[in-house]
Structure formats: structure tokens, C-alpha cells
Amino acid sequence: MASQKLLDALNKAIAMDLRATIQFMWQHVMALGMDAPGVKDVLKDIAMEEMKHSEAFAERLYYLGGTPTTTPMPISVGGTLKEMLETDLKIEAETIKQCKTIIQLAIEDGDPATRLMGEKILAESEGHEDKLQTVLGRR
């Protein structure tokens, strides 16, 4: 049986990824008018992956007996392209931290399936962070 801490962590991850999906997609639309044809595609791709993450977290939470949230955390779009990407990096850092929490709680609960899901999403989120760092010219 899953601990309440793990159920709460999964629900927080859902809210975070719903926020990320909305934010990245909105930025993708906004970037269409900017001098950023390559960046808009990166934002759209990440938005689609974030949607899959929220779905995976929700399915796992439901399986474990919880009720998935449908309320995203508040978004922060940013004005310039650089501000958008900086805001997105903060979201990815939060998501990476949340995935690590889920992994640790799953280990404590003896739940290898949730741990593996958390590790997969952690790796994808680290990839998102790397893409954003690369677009900002930091890698």
C-alpha cells in the first residue's frame, strides 16, 4: 500500500506537469511571432512530453488508490524569449527535484514500479533541462 506521502508527491507532480504543459504550449504559440523558429519546436516537443508525464503520474496515482488532480500549478510565461526559457529552466529544476522525491518515497514504500516510472521521467526532465540550456547557449 502506498504511503500518503507518495500519493501527495504524485499529485504534486501532476499539478507541476499540467502547469508545464500549458506554459510550454503557450510559449510555443508566442514564439511563433518571435525570431525563434527552432525554439518554438523545442517548446512544443517539451510540452507534449510534459503532457505524457502528467498522464503517467495520474495513471500511477489512480492505480495506487489516489485521486489525480486536474488543477495545474500557476503558469509564468515570461515576456522575452530569454525570460521564457529562464522560467522554463526553473520549472524543470522543480520537476527534477520532485521526481527525486517520488523515487525516494517509492523506495521507502517498496514500490519498484513507481520508482522506475520516476526514474524514466527524471531522465526525460534532465533532457529537457539540457535542451533549454543549449538553446540559451550555456552548453
What order do the helices and strands come in, and which of them pair?
Layout (H helix, E strand, L loop, with lengths): L3 H28 L5 H27 L17 H29 L2 H24 L4
Overall pLDDT level: 93
Tell me the β content: under 5%
Low-pLDDT sequence parts = none
N-to-C CA distance = 43 Å
Element order: H for helix, E for strand = HHHH
Task: Name the CATH class.
Answer: Mainly Alpha
Please outline the major beta sheet. none
Structure write-up:
There is one protein chain. By secondary structure, this protein is mainly α. Helices cover 78% and strands 0% of the residues. It has one domain (4-68, 76-135): Ferritin. Helix 1 packs antiparallel against helix 2 (37-63). The protein is elongated, with a radius of gyration of 15 Å.
Task: Offer a concise description of the structure.
With 139 residues, this protein is an all-alpha fold.
What characteristics describe this protein?
mainly alpha, elongated, Ferritin, 139 residues
